[in-house]
Amino acid sequence: MTDEAALEQTRKAIQKWKKKRGSLIMALHEIQGIYGYVPWDHAKVVAEEMGVALARIYEVLTFYNFFKLESPGKYIISVCDGTACHIKGGASVIDAFAKHLNINPGETTPDRLFHMQIVRCLGCCGLAPVVVVNGKTYGKVSPADVPSIIDEWKKKEAL
Ligand code: FES
């Protein structure tokens, strides 16, 4: 995904929070759910779209320990464990990533290539179980698909 496409994705993702009072944290939370952290250029999009000063966003991001301003790994694997994905076997997909990468959810591989996080609903429940890697969505993922997803990103790295 290009940077422009990623920024556009962020713009779309936060539309639903725009009109709700006090929803800045939810919007930032959603961005971190997609990227594993809140990239600064995406924080700027939030500022523009929600009419909030960048300084206020920086304040929020640094006040809550939960938010990360730097990428914890090059490729962020978000495995959904929201209700629909959980029912369709999301937990076994999480286990498969944990086994193949030898890390637990919330951890990064020692080479800092992969970071795995669990998210609650990526907004495409019809594709459950869903995995997103750096903005690319994989639907109806089974544990057997996990090695090829990891390989795809490793090959990208080797190019
Ligand atoms: S519950 Fe996984 S995408 Fe909605």
Tell me what you see in this structure:
With 159 residues, the chain is an alpha+beta fold. The chain folds into 2 domains: 3-63; 75-158, Glutaredoxin. It has 8 helices and 4 strands; from the N terminus they run αααααβααβββα. The protein has helices spanning 3-13, 15-18, 24-35, 40-50, 54-63, 83-87, 90-101, 146-158, and strands spanning 75-80, 114-119, 131-133, 136-138. Strands 2-1-3-4 form a 4-stranded mixed beta sheet, with helices on both faces. Helix 3 runs antiparallel to helix 4. The chain is globular and about 45 Å long. The model has no long low-confidence stretch (mean pLDDT 91). Bound molecules: FE2/S2 (inorganic) cluster (FES).
What topology emerges from the helices and strands here?
Layout: H1 3-13, H2 15-18, H3 24-35, H4 40-50, H5 54-63, E1 75-80, H6 83-87, H7 90-101, E2 114-119, E3 131-133, E4 136-138, H8 146-158
Parallel strand pairs: 1-2
Antiparallel strand pairs: 1-3, 3-4
This protein binds FE2/S2 (inorganic) cluster.
